Every structure is written in structure tokens, then in C-alpha cells.
Records
---
Amino acid sequence: MEGKRSVAILCSGGPAPGINTVICSVAKVFLKSGFRVIGLNYGTKTLFTENPDTVDIDFETADQYFNRGGSFLKMSRYKPKDSEFRPDFFIKNNVELLVTIGGDDTASTANRITKYLNEKKLPVRNIHVPKTIDNDLPLPERLPTFGYHSAKNEGVRIATTVYEDARTSGNWFVVSSMGREAGHLAFGVGSACHYPMVIIPEMFNKVEVTFDRIIKMMISSIVKRKLYGMDYGAIMISEGVFHFMSDAEIVNSGIKFSFDDHGHPELGKVSKAHIFNVLLSEKLDEIGIKIKCRPVEIGYEVRCCPPTAFDLKYCTLLGFGVKKLFDLGKSGCIVVCHNDGKVASLYLEDVEDPDTGKIKPRLVDISAQDYQMFLENLHYINEDDYQKASKYLKNPQLFDIKNILGW
């Protein structure tokens, strides 16, 4: 197979619905044009090694996997150092295009690889396909990263069932949603399910993120619902709030953590919903409010679900769009498919942080009209509730969200 023009595909980071659709769409459109299509297992972890873990993708393989969840190419979160880059794989396999599939970390690595290829004057182009259920790549016009809508759809199914359980059993649930830094998934699921309280890191734009503020926001919603005559509910919170907390704040929570080699608490080993539920329960007991609350985690359950019709079509267009950009001579860019059907390129160097070289994440725009409308209709104590809320709280004003968040 050496000497034949080829395209290499790798995916990194965490799974997202639609990965197989992208891989197989890229494969089909390039196979049709006579290219060899090479899939790389474990992403950039093996790309620059002496023996990359590869698989040749043919039409039958592409046709078998295009609509399945997960990824038939193994993934990893490995981030190679610049010193590990080497041209061997590209030269040996006559690679003309490297297709990277991933989120902001993978895009940042792709940006470095593009610069390396250019420096070495290798005739290899790189096109990135924006994948992440976090929806946090800086695409224009609020275009979604692929996998977000499918993960959100599955998250809504879970969150709706939880909310119905709350109503049926008279309980409260603390639901934690994935979202490493941004609150898109938590906001998307929580707002779709009419959760009375949705907490995302972007809300803390004027104050420090602390457990005390978060727990007060939860209690504000619980008391407000009591004023409505409702003793049940659910709170959606993005795990991204941890990204903005200091290690001291996390350690001083009273939750027992293990620590990594750098002395940081290993949050990945602990249920975020459990942490918030324990702290909420303790505070409720302290102020004398009798509420039974339970934790629910939304995370791994939504990463490998089958893609919805939206992502099946969207990912197919992104895959075909890679070929379109390749034919136009594009490189070092993200493939973008606009709502009007046009495929365009977004250059990685245009969305990188000039100081770090990393791709800047897209956060939830809490000043946007749609967000503000949802915020106005969440359930929390305001100034008009102080007198009635004093039945449950000694200082109701401390549980007013505007005071909590400094708005």
C-alpha cells in the first residue's frame, strides 16, 4: 500500500455521539476518489511512535459503523510534546491529509502539528473536525460541536425521568452534568427539562466560585418552591464549576479526596453530584429544613449513545466538508458547516490564545437574551420573598441569587 495517496484519521479526548459518522463519511468520500484511508488507534499517542497502531478503513467497514455510537478507532487523551513530533508516519504512508477529530485540547495539538508540518515543509495538510459534548469550541454563529445535541438529548431523557421521580416521591435531586469548563450541556439539559435551578460556572462572572455560594443557590430554589407549595424539585449543576475553584476550596469542603502526583485533588475519581448532595444535606440539617435529596450524575451515560438524526446528518456534512476543504487546498483549520449549508474553514491560528497557543474555549453567553429569559424563570428567592421566606431562613437576603452572585 506504500506509495498510494492516503488520508490518516485520528480522534482524541472523550467519546461523543457521531464520531463514527465523521470517520466513515471522511473514509467514504476519500475512498471514492481513490485514496487509501488509514485510521489511527489511540490518537496522537501512537502517531509519532516507531509502530503506529493503524487500521485500513474500506467501504464495508465505513458502512458498518457510520451510525453507531462510540468510536471504532480507540481514543486517548495523550498530548504529545513538540519534541516527540517526527515525520516518519507521514512519509512512509504518503499521507497528504491528517484529519483530527476532537475538542479544544485536540484542536490545540492539531494546531501545533500544523505548525510542525509547515516548518518541516512536509506536503501534509491538517483539517480538524470539532467534536465535544461540552459544545465549547469557538465556532461562529453559535454553531454546535458535533455530539452536543445527541448527548443533550440523552441527558434530557435521563433528567426528565429524574424530575418525574422527584415529583412522584416528593424528593429533591442534585444532578451534576459533564462540562469541563463551560456550562453548555448543563444549561441545555436543565433548561429543556424546566429544572427550577441550573448552576453553571459562567454565572460566577463577578464573584469567586465557592461551595458556600453554590449551596445557598440550591437552598434558595428549595425555599422558593416551598413558597409555591411544592416540596420536590431538581437542581442541575455543571461540573465545570470545579474548574474555577481553588484546590484549597475543594480540599476544605470536608470531602475525602485522593491526590495526583502534583498534589491536586483527583476529581475524576469522585461523583460531583455526591459532593454537592452531601454539602447540601449538611446545610439543610444545619438550618432545620427537612428535605430528602439524592445525587444523580449525567456523564459517561451520554458520551457513547447513538447519534440522533441531527448529528447523523451534521457529522456526515462535516465529513464531506473535510474533502471539500482539502480540494480547495485548505489546511490548519476547523471544518465548519453553516446553517445555510455552506462549508467553510475556521483557521486554528485565528482562535488560539496568543500567549499559550491553546484554542480558547467558548463559554455560555449569559448576557444573551435566551439565557436571560431562562434565568428570569428559574425558582429562587428575590426581594419580594424575604418576609415569607423568613419562615425557613433567618436571613433570606443572603439566599437571594443577586446578592449571592453580586449582580
Note: The longest strand covers residues 95-102.
---
Amino acid sequence: MKKVYFKTFGCRTNQFDTQIMMSQLKEFTVTLNESESDIIVVNSCTVTNGADSSVRGYINSMSRKYPDKRVILAGCGSHSKGESLFESKKVFGVIGHSEKENINRILKQDSRFYQIGDLEHIDSTIVEEFIGKSRAFIKIQEGCNFRCSYCIIPSVRGNARSQREDLILSQISKLASNGFGEFILTGTNVGSYGRESGSSMAKLLKKISQIRGVRRIRIGSLEPIQIDDEFKEILTEPWMARHLHIALQHTSDKMLEVMNRRNSYHSDRELFEEIAQKGYAIGTDYIVGHPQESELEWSEAIKRVKDLPLTHIHAFSYSKRDGTPSALMREQVRGDIAKARHRELTDIVKGKNYIFREEHRENLEVLVESGKDGVYQGLDQYFNRINIKSDEELSSNWILINSMEVKDDRNWARV
């Protein structure tokens, strides 16, 4: 059988989508080595111009290095850049989100193909195994109804729609029976889950927790307005990972308005402090250098960041994205200024994370992901990475750490 290699860019949702495609390959073999593959499927990200550039760079390098291999474009980039890459013959084929469950049939085609599908589909595939993973990613919804001024994602993922609850629970049950204990709920806008059916994230989490074998549940990025009283009630449950990623995008109210966001700093701060008091690490997304981010707005924003109980950050410099309102805004921020602000922001949160790790040295529940030469890696309940030295095989095991050394970028322990 021909061998297929998957190269995944971008978010956890893309990682899940890759697993869906892998699970559908009945007449092909999945390989984790691109050099021995016959076909390379690129599951692309298009959230920024930089993401597009990374995907194009990879496709070009594969074409030069392996001219005889077929390169297939999938993912969000298929909707934004697929047509141009196909017409210029940079790729053999293009498949959209709704077509990934048909990948086995599509890859058997001898002629070039462009099958983009639609943006209303939601997958029905139940993934029973995650190749090369110790944690399981579960996509619970697709699309987004928010219209943030900088974001292209609703145009390439569609409006918010939820996966059927019975399919989610069935998938987790099968994965738990296969030995998975940690589950990460993903989606384009996971906090919108169940809105159209009268359900909610909290209701779903409670049902998941009752499945035999479920030990820890993590949640993808939530919006501040999606964390309601019902959700707060489950924060003390033992199966909840003690880390939440709550997307702020900025801490200047003017910039939040420019970005067409639905949150405000003062309510965000109250929320963060309430959650931090329950022993949680808190991460966020943050855009630096968005148009109209003056020195005044930045000074206010960075002061507010210092006041927030943040421990993790996914910060990136604004990248112009054609087709969004932000792309037409004036008062662009120079690249060198955005870079300096990005460094200032990440250094502050890095320091906050170090202090948090110093204060949380004991009772660390670590799921070991992988190891090499007696050094294993994993994540604790606070989403902090830890290296563990051991003479024993620890991969995919749960380890309780009560003594460790805090270093600059991660913790270290000996078992």
C-alpha cells in the first residue's frame, strides 16, 4: 500500500482533523517519516500571513526535495489559498474541510483534483486511536459566530455548529477503553458548544467526567463572556485540569473596540482573579501591533498585563490578513515596534510563570508524553512542561511529582 505522511500546521483543531484523515485511510499506510512517503498531506493554517508563508515554504521545499511525491493541500489554507496553489501546480490536489472524511477515495484518484466542499459540514467520524499521541484531542464544535476585525477564520471554517453529544461521548468512551486518560476539547470556538441545542460546555464536561477511564479534561481557548456561573461551579472538580486558556487579545479597551471584541479589561480582570483564587494557571491569546495601537494604548495595556494573574501566553505580532476589516485600517504599527512590544509582553508573562512554578512544586500530576536517553517529557495539571530523568520506561504513564527543580523554561525532576 502507498504511504501517506501528514504535516500539520496550526491549532489543536487541525491536529484533530489530521487524526480524522488518518483514521479514514483504509487503503493506505500512515507513516511518520516524510522521506518514505508516497503522498504528503499538508493540513494547513491560514490565520496570519506568516502562517500562509510557512505552509507555502513547506510545500515548495517538498516539491524540490521530493519531486515525485504527490503533495495535497488540506485545512484552512485550502479555502484561502487552495485555488491559487492548485492553478500554479504547486500541489497535486486540494481538499476542503468537508471532504476530509472522503480522503481515502480522493487520494486514489490518478488525476489532479480540487474538491473544496462546503463550510456547513461537521464530521461524524469517531476517532478511536491517536497515532503518536499520549493525549486525545476531541473536536466538539466547528466554526465561529464572532466577527473580530482581524480574523479570517469564520470565512474558512464557517459559522459555529456543535458536534452531536452522543458522538462526543462515544468517541471518548472508546478512547478511554484504549488507554487514554487525558482529553483536550477543541474547536474553533469551543465555548459556544451547545448554544443551538440548549446544552453548554459545563453540561458536556459533567457527562464526560462520568465515563470510566477519564482522568483529566483540558479545554481549548474560551472567550471571557463564555465563562458563566454554571461553568464556574465545576472548576473545583478533580477531573478539571488546573489551567484555562481565556482569549483576551488585548488589555486596552480602545484596542478591544477596534478589534471588535466582546470583552472589556475590568470584567476580564475580575474573572481572572476569581479563577486564580481557585488555584488555576491562566493563559491567554494576545495580539501585539494591531493597527491603531499607539504608544499610549500600549503603555496602558502593558501596565494592565502586569496586574493580571497570567501564567501562560500565546502572543503574536499582528499580521495583515486580506479580506478582514483590520487589513483596511490606517495607523499601522511598524514591525520593529511590534517586535519590541512582543518581547516585552512575553518576558513579563514568562516571569509570572516562573513565580507560579516556584509556588506549585508539589502534587504535580504529570502525563508523560515521550522520552529519549532516560529523559522524559510531560505536562502537569497547570500546563507546565516538565522533564523527568528516570532509568525506567515512563512513556504514557501518569507520574506524581513532589520534588522538582524550577528552571528558566521548564521544571526538572528525578524518578
Note: Residues 311 and 353 are 4 Å apart (CA to CA).
---
Amino acid sequence: MRVLFIEVDTERDWAVASIGPGFLAAYLRANGHEVAFFRATIEMTDADVVARARAEAPQLIGLSLTTRQWLRARSIVAAFDRELPDIPVVAGGLHPTFAPEEVLAAPGFDYVCLGEGEGPLLDLVTRLAAGKKVGLLTPIANIWTKGGTKPTLRAPFEPIDQLPFVARDLLDEHPGLVHMTTQRGCPFPCTYCAARMYNELYDDAGGEYGRRRSHDSVLAELRGLRDRGLLSYVIFLDDTFTIHHPWVREFCRVYGDEYRTPFSLHARVETVSDRLLPVLAKAGASMVTYGVESGSERIRREVMQRPVTNQRFRDVFRWTKEAGILITANFMIGLPGETRDDLQMTLDLAEELGTDYGLYDFGYFVFYPYPGTHLFKLCVERGYLPGGYEEMPANHRASILKLDTITPDDIAEFYDRFTALRRKLYAHRAGKTEHVDSSALHG
């Protein structure tokens, strides 16, 4: 059977496509099916996407969707429903997993895959290829059929090392730039992040969703890329690469011995130490991204379930700088319960980390409550979401929430002040003497 995966771009073309379809495609190919892929760039109209899909002659169309991609994907699939009604569509990923009823209610979506997709999608493709129906009388675990009832979940795929390496032709990687995952699942209870919700989704399904590949598996994939001349920089996409120190230390030893290819990773300040960071640097770590999120310890503790102190950030940033590793960070504003004082604390901490503790670059985002997260449920319960929010694009530049402690104007003001701070840090890093007006930072 020929399956077409489509990456739905929003706002701009991303450097790498969703990695989930890369694993799904590899698994389908390993089991004898044909896979195609294209990116629905922002310049393409719905009609353009339909024409391209028709030219690929698929027997099934698959999309992996976040909430940011949902509205455009809904429009595209409605066009499929009008122009290509005989080709079924299956959607998976974060948004379909945690808002499946909304997806299945939209025209053109025939199936939703809940959670992990390799086994369920293969079962669906095998059954469709044989001309068999999927529905109430012939259910597939994890696959929710339009008009059907919620399916059961199968246990996560084990052992994870038996999954084929990701199909990189579906990732649109720049030559030599490699995106890798070494694990699935996240053990931390952050209320704003949907990654944790996969663990909770599988609590009753049997087995642990959190799994990590062996060193042999990761290194074998990298070795194959290196031998084809496709390895010059590695980006590890794991939510927290530094979770288990024995695994990380052994990885650094064997990776450093064989490769020493520069790499970047994501970490939490709670999961690194002044002893681990030099080990990472010696192996080739050139950049670490930390989630700071808020400069208010109260917001991190009470709203985000991240009980970590600002002093811990200062210490870890200093250790990272001393190890010779560049630092990027992410900040978030516009959270439930946040006040102007909390916003100022976040801006102040970002400026301090950038001036004194080695912060090289940072991203700043306005909070958006993603379906499935605990903060989404809180926003629903407290009436923070406006009527018709489902039709509002998910973006990180302006708040859609009706909060009772800060206004949209407050959030917009601090977003602009973060922009001014970023310009100031860029100028400082470039050795320039001019600076933005201090009033742009301090109100």
C-alpha cells in the first residue's frame, strides 16, 4: 500500500519536519509498504496541496499534527474531502491524541491514531490494503474511526531498539545536520507540556511509555550516517537528554571516542551538575538549551510544578559557561496566576542570565494552553478561554486568555520588552557600544 505523509507548515518553513512520520515511514517500509512525503509550504494553497497529493497517487494520507498546525490542516483535509473523497486520511500526533473528537468531527478525517503509532498504523494499512473495513466490529487498538468509539491502547513498542532507524528523507534535513532521538517519554510533571501527558495516557495501557535506546542503537545509526558523509552536527531532540547520568556518561565516553562530532541537546537544570557538564563538553556538546520558563519561583512552583530556584539557574548557567558550552534558554509569559511583578521577575532573570551567567540566546513565548495539558484543563475550568477559542490560531506572540491577574496589554508590553532585551544582548555579544533605550526594558 502507498501511504503519503504530508508536513503542514505554519507561519514559516521549518528546518526539520515532524520526526514522528519519519519513524512511521521507516516501520511501514520495513513491512513492505511504499511511502511518499511532501511539505505543504506556507506558499501553497489548499488547491496546490490537493494537486500535489493527487500526483503522488496515495492510497492513504497521514498527517502528524500539533495544535499550531491544526487549523490549516483542517482546511487542507476539507479540500481533500471535496476533491479526493476516496482516499482515507489518518491523523496522529499531539493534537489528534488529546483532541480526537474535534479532529474526527472535521470533514475528511477518517481515523485518528492515539499515542504511539508504529504498530497501530501498520495494522490499519495492512487491513486497508486487504480491502477490509475498520470500525466498531473490527477495531484496531489506538485507532479511533470516525463514527466509532474510543479504542483501547496497546502497550508501548518494546524493545524500542527493534524500531528501524528514522526515514530521513521525510525530515528535510540540511546536508550533514542530523536530528536524533534517544528516548520516548518524559518523567517530569510540568503542567504546560503535552509530552508528559503521553506517560499519563499509557498509565492504564500496560508497560512504561518512557524508554531509552541502547548506546549501540544510537551509535549504529550515527555510524551509518557518517559512513555516507552525512554527519557534521547532531541535534538531540529529547525533551531532557540528561535524565539518567549513567546512560549519559557512558554515551559521552563511547561517542567521544568514536565521533567527537559537535552536538546540541536539551536539559533541565535539575538534571545536570558541575561534574557532568565537562563530560558532555569533552564528548562534543557545543550547546545546551534550558527551559527557564519563568523568573518567578512562585509561578514555577505553584503553576508549572517546577520547584527549582533562581539560584539553581545561576549556578548551572555558570557551570555550563565554564565548561565551554553555549547556552540557549526558553522563557514563557502570560501564564494563569501571573502578575506584572512575576512578568518583571522573568525579564529581570533573563537579563541577569544574559549579562552575567553566559546566556547566549533565548526564545520567549506567550503561553498557549494546549489540549491534554493540566493547564489547559485549568483554563477551561476557570473560564480563561474565550468563546470560539477553537477557531483562534495557536501562536506564541499574543495571548488569547481572559486572565484575572494580568491583561493582554500587559503581556504584549512584556513581549516587546523581551524583544528589546534580545536586541540588547545581540549588540553586547557583537561588541557594539550602542544599546537600546533602557526604558524599553524597564517600562
Note: The CA atoms of residues 296 and 341 lie 8 Å apart.
